Amino acid sequence: MTTFDPERDLRLERFMKASPEMVWRCWTDPELFAQWFAPKPVKVSDVHYEFHPGGAANLTMTLPDGTVMPLQGCVVEVEPARRLVTTDAMTAGFRPAGQPFLTAITELIPQDGGTLYRATALHNSAEASAKHEQMGFYDGWGTTFRQLDELSDSLT
């Protein structure tokens, strides 16, 4: 289990009305994933996740100005409808990647008929964490939480 380090890690939690299974469906269905993963009007495409250790965690984001951002990573750990750990420090097959930015831990905790959704971004330094925060971590990830909450609740 990972210990939260307030110097290097960022975390958001939100209660969602939908069950962990519905929230998980929004992670595992590429069409649903593309609807919530980035703050609108950013577009998400080419979603390719393989939900097993060593599997791909890839997608492409297109910013409103047309900038295309391909993101490639690796699934490190998966417990369906409970926990997903991904990182950009590796690509599929646990291949080392270039400059790592973060490891993301997503936890779906059953609570009061819904889900406590906890997302933790682990960084290799306090400086990297501060940079991510300055890039808009809380606003951006908070927006995606709202989008995911609305989408997953609409499926129930």
TrEMBL record:
Q: Which SUPFAM superfamilies match?
A: Bet v1-like
Task: Output the Gene3D superfamilies linked to this UniProt entry.
Answer: 3.30.530.20
Q: Where would I find the Activator of Hsp90 ATPase homologue 1/2-like C-terminal domain in this sequence? A: 17-151
Q: Which domain of life is it from?
A: Bacteria
Q: Which InterPro entries match?
A: ASHA1/2-like_C (IPR013538), START-like_dom_sf (IPR023393)
The entry assigns this protein to a family as follows: Belongs to the AHA1 family.
> By what name is this protein known?
Polyketide cyclase
